[in-house]
Amino acid sequence: MSHDDDRTLVPRILDGDARAADAFARRWFGPCYAVALAIVRHPEDARDLAQESLIKALRRLDQLADPGAPGPWIHAIARNTALSHLARARRRGRSVDLDAVTPIPAPAAPDGDDAARLVHALGVLKENERAVVLLHDLDGLPHAGIAAFLGVSETNSRQLLFVARKKLRAVLRPEEEPS
Amino acid sequence: MTDHPIDFSSLDPRRDPDRFDGLIRHVVARGLPPPVSPLTWGLARLFAPGFATALALALVFGALAMRQTVAHEPGGDSATATTDTGPFAFASWAADGSDDPWTDLEMLRR
After folding, report:
1. Do A91 and A107 belong together in one domain?
2. A168 and A106 housed in the same domain
3. CB contact A133 to B (< 8 Å)
4. Which of A66, A136, B13, B18 has the fewest CB atoms within 10 Å, i.e. is most exposed?
5. Tens digit of pLDDT for each residue in A7-46?
6. Is residue A58 domain-shared with residue A88, that is, in the same domain?
7. DSSP one-letter string for B13-30
């Protein structure tokens, strides 16, 4: 979807058009989810946080400076929402040690275990590497879109993706990677 | 190998379309303000000027009432209380040394 679509969607949403709001939410769910998952590394929480971020974005849409480029604004909302969630979890004493990564067993596993393996494997990455690889490989966003959304250069996005995939493959399938 | 995407499909909430549709409906229902019915709009437009006038009057009278209350309180502005209201205003000539208003009336009668 191009910037022109956002440019036409935003005024329609502000006029109360539910179909435009639906299209907007579907368009931006993936990026919000990827950012939340990169931060909290918990798929269910990330889904709820993406939902919460989109509700906030819709409610504050009149504050959006450039209706043609809502990406950085939505990214800020999604990131702040996820970070607030982490801060609340820390206050409640819940374990959120994102850097604690345990080795993941390589054998193939059923689907649920596959998700768990992926989540654990994401722990070897830095937050920006996680965000880029999830935006690209999960949401299918091109590098130009990732660069605009995260506020990085396209070259930086490519480098982060390369590093992220390499690290992930080393964890997921150690036998395939040269030592 | 690093050129190939990582398969994150097991982490994608959109894998379950029904659940995802429900999620989006929830977002739209909570994020979008409820539509205002034409009847509500009509009533609002009809009564808006009246409401605005009533609000303005309430503010003016409220401010005046508050000012009077402050003036009549023991620690209030007694100078205002003695010169602005009732018989005090008519007899202010005695307090500030100006001419007696009755004198002016007597002169007019002649």
Report:
1. no
2. yes
3. yes
4. B18
5. 899 999 999 999 999 999 999 999 999 999 999 999 999 9
6. yes
7. GGGSHHHHHHHHHHHHHH
Residues of A in contact with B36 (CB under 8 A): 16
Tell me the two tokens of residue A88.
Answer: 């609340």
* Environment class of A86 (CB within 10 Å of its CB; exposed 0-12, middle 13-18, buried 19+): middle
Query: Into how many domains does chain A fold?
Result: 2
Hey, is the C-beta of A67 within 8 angstroms of any chain B C-beta?
no
Residue in chain B closest to A178 (alpha carbons) equals: B1
* ipTM of predicted assembly, 2 dp: 0.81
Q: What angle do CA A141, A142, A147 make, to 5 degrees?
A: 95
CA distance A21 to A175: 46
pLDDT, one tens digit per residue, over A98-139 is 544 444 443 444 455 889 999 999 999 999 999 999 999 999
Query: Which residues of B touch chain A, with CB atoms under 8 Å apart?
Result: 1-2, 4-14, 20, 23-28, 30-33, 35-36
